Structures are given as C-alpha cells and as structure tokens.
Amino acid sequence: MSNLAILASGSGSNFQAISEVIKKSHHNVSCLICDRKSAFVMERAKKLGIKVFYVTYYNRDKSEAEKEIDSILNSQKVDLVALAGFMRILSPLFTNKWKNRVINIHPSLLPKYPGSHGIEDSFNSGDIELGVTIHYVDQGMDTGPIIYQESFTRCDGETLESAEEKIHRLEHRVYPQILIKKLDNFNKAI
Question: Where are the transmembrane segments (predicted)?
Fold first, then answer.
C-alpha cells in the first residue's frame, strides 16, 4: 500500500473523485493539505474521513509554508502528492526534493494554454481537440514533463459550459487511474 496526499485550494470535485477511487484500491489517501481556510474541499475530506491540514501562506514566506507542507508529508509517510486545484506555484527547493513525486492535472492539452484559465483559453482558441494533461510538477507553471493526455473532438455548437463539463468528467475519470498506476510503482520499488 502506498500513501497519497492531495493538495487543493477550492471546491474539491477532483479531490473527491480521486479519493473515492483510491479508497477502492489497496492504496490510501493519507491527507488533504489545503491553503484556503474556507475552501469546500475541507468539508469533502471530513465527510470521507480523510485527515485535513490547513497550511496558510498568508503573511509568511513561501518557503515557510512549503517547509510545513513537507513536514506534514513526511509525518504522514506520503509516497506521492497530487495537486487538485492547488493554486500555487511550488518553489524549486520543494519540487526538487519531491521530484517525480508531485503530479498535477491541467484542463488543456499542454504545452498549449497553461495557467489558471486553461479551459477558457483552449475553448476560445477554436482548437478542434480539447482535453486534459496529467504532468509532473516542476517550478514552472504547468511546465513539468507530461505523463498522459486525453482529448475529445469539439462538437458543432459546443458551448464553454458543455466543454467544461466534458473536461471535468474526463479529469474525474483519468486522473485517479493515472495516480493508481503511479502508486502501484511505489509498491514495486519497495
């Protein structure tokens, strides 16, 4: 069994999708780390019986917050970290320490449309193919090595709302699967 920690900042639909799938596997979601006190993701975690840690970045240096996150990850014996709407760029010090052990999902086909408006930017581009990218996290904004991509063809009359719904369904299906494969690799390495 390998341990997964999830870092999130928002409502937590990806967090919930990941947690529900991981609970059916032989792996464990050891904790949620959240940087926003009022984020709904913390309620989701409590309902699922997952430990919640709040780490504030407010009025403190990023390195202090990341040291606290690192300490939690170590205390929870975390093997892999998944970002699920965690809206912070991690420092090189953190990403180098956790190299190839921090994974993110992005709602566009990277390297196109990085950043917090990936769905809108890809939709507004007129690209025929829309989709998601799962990648390792480095110190850049959605610049880490790509692990997996999946796309769908835009329909005639596709709206931003319908595209967003398809992207979220795709995220909720593929992200947990990829995370389980990566967690399985930790078991093989032991």
Answer: none
- The total number of structural domains that make up the chain: 1
Model-level pTM greater than 0.85?
A: yes
CATH number at residue 60: 3.40.50.170
- Asked if residue 74 belongs to a known ligand binding site, the reply is no
**Residues marked as catalytic:** 106
Whether residue 173 is annotated as binding a ligand: the answer is no
Question: What three-state secondary structure class fits 96?
Answer: helix
Q: What is the mean pLDDT of residues 47-67?
A: 96
Range of the domain at 76: 3-189
Token pair of 83, please? 């970002």
Residue 66: partners with Cβ closer than 8 Å, 6 or more residues away: 90, 91, 93, 94
